[in-house]
Amino acid sequence: MNILKEVLKHEVFPALGCTEPIAIAYAASIAAREIKGDIEEIDITVDPGVYKNGFAVTVPNTGGEKGNLIAGVLGALIKKPELKMEILQKVSDEDIRYAKALIQAGKAKISYDNSKTDLYVEVFVKSEKSSARAVIQNTHTNLVVLEKDSQSLVKKELKDKSSVGHEYRTILLEMQISEIIELAQQIDDEDYDYIKSGIDMNLEISKAGQKLQKVGYYIYELVQRGLILDDTFSSSKILTASAADARMAGLNFPVMSSGGSGNQGIVAILVPYNVGKFFKIKERRIVESIALSHLINSYIKCFTGDLSPLCGCAIAAGVGAAVAIVFQQYPRDMGKITLAVNNLISDLGGMLCDGAKGGCALKVASSTNSAIRSAYMALNNYGISETEGFVGKSAEETICNLSKISILGMAGVDDTILGIMRDKIL
User: Fold this and answer.
1) 281 with 148, same domain?
2) Are 225 and 270 members of one domain?
3) Which residue among 75, 104, 315, 347 sits deepest, i.e. has the most Cβ atoms within 10 Å of its Cβ?
């Protein structure tokens, strides 16, 4: 099994809009395609992480509508699951009117199930003539159940929890970072071209986002006013924050994701790309470093889960970017790579995820800044050691410690955040 190709296939893909509401739209589309007649009822159940992430984010091509429910209803109306995570690339005014009417009439509902601890999306769709149910689990496009009129069409048996949805993840979970580095150096022409397409895609959405007066714009203004330096730190933050601005605002531009997350894809790709260009690293090595960034992001999420209470842009994509920057100059120096991991996790290990929304661009900027700083210190053999806090003796141990904090120590965080969110609309 080629682990890199599996990661690129399942976790690095173009996505239009925040991946959680789009995953709901995708599941709804799968179910709705199986039924005939006008949709009369849609019932969506998700895990708390999906509910939180899509709660306040703008859905593309809806005129500013926000949230999981409108995305799910639109997916059911569009009925084009072959578009996968770009399913909302074309939404008609009639689709939006019909979706709103279903929601306002109470015929479309969404809830979350606290018993679901991994990514989980279940959509039940009913018309006068038939009904269907689709379930996506563990990753954003992993269909495990499809039923029509209570008859099973798809039923994928999940293995034990350690497999976290895909066999490649079971293998990745047991690997050392030194082995993952070897994978990144084995990219073929197909991988190379695909990773390069992700660079171009994310640069394009960043350019669009710089026209918005949001986080990236104001970082640029700080540079123009001389309040912060015009350097690689600031140019990288402008790139990544602007891309996140555009994505969270629902602009009609796809982004190449990483670990199933668009914002994480922005960090994992654009940070090592921009830093590599600054240091005049050869293009082949930059592309290999981005492959490594994707792999490290996915590796960490095997430990913390796809939708941790902690910000994935920080503790997964940020780490991947930091490791990639070190790799560009010292591809086999595990001492420096360990320091980069420990530096970033020591810095941003407690950053909370309170769902996808415009403010994510601030976290993307912070992750970008920390990734470059952490890598630079590591390149100069400085880093946080195991004598401090939850940092371990190795990068792998630090990641395991972070996983314990995320899963055990922060078990009640999502409920608390969701309670605050619900209070806002009561």
Assistant:
1) no
2) yes
3) 75
